[in-house]
Amino acid sequence: MVELFIFFEQIYRILFLLIPVLVSVAMIVWLDRRVWAFVQKRRGPNVVGPFGLFQTLADALKYIFKEIIIPASSNKVIFILAPIVTMTLALIAWAVIPFSETFVLADINVGILYLFAVSSLGVYGIIMGGWASNSKYPFLGAIRSAAQMVSYEVSIGVIIINVLLCVGSLNLSDIVLAQKDLWFVIPLFPMFIIFFISALAETNRPPFDLPEAEAELVAGYQTEYSGMMYAMFWLGEYANILLMCAMGSILFLGGWLSPIDLFPFNVIPAPIWLILKILFLFILFALIKAIVPRYRYDQLMKLGWKIFLPFSLIYVVLTASFLMYFDLLPGN
Predict the structure, then answer these.
(1) pTM reported for the whole predicted model
(2) Residue 257: phi, psi to the nearest 5?
């Protein structure tokens, strides 16, 4: 009986986390379109519901009732599994995100490694979809995505080492608590900028949306998908974007910590601070989508391997040297 109670308690906690994440995905799609419209001086979605808030819901209903077409020459099993893998990996990563000191689904000691591992696996859903479609454009998009995501994961991994040197722990809650006196965005500002740009490439966002470049590849790895299967790719993509914003907030912006511990700022609950920081980073994502033109593929690879990676490695050496010289390494 006790085991059954624990089981249902865990299911409740999982749903308590996943449902708000899915609702947030729907809302940020609306926000993304509104920001893009604002930059281009047009209205954006404003008809379905107040201020167009239900436009994403209307789009979701449209995808649900659309016919799912599976190409006759495709590998049908892998074709169907690809969007499921993409969406599942995007959602399970949220298990280790701490919204406050006590509100985290799985407070594991290697949370940052778990996040890095799950986000790295996301490329498999895209490769599976591109290859299983048995079509040139999806296959080219999948190859581009694999090269792009692997390239920028290397830089993100080196950037995370800078943070871990300052904290001495892989636990995400410890990383947040280590920023009580000083957010890491100040001493590690260059790393924050590189992390943010690498997150754009990791999530295939403009100006690095080359795996689905409509001018060259129609829709890239999503070309042969329709209906709810296409929507699952779309949900996974935006859930990954939110996850990267959450990682940036936790690693550099103090997570749930308030910027000022004095009244009246401390009356705002801790999870709200994290949500506000995620929202701030997402608005930057949306602005860049509307402002910055798409990179060429050779420029994308050059930026990752010849600029970001060497600079990140040099910064790791500088960070470690500074901490050792001033005897600031954690545990000393």
Answers:
(1) 0.89
(2) -70, 140
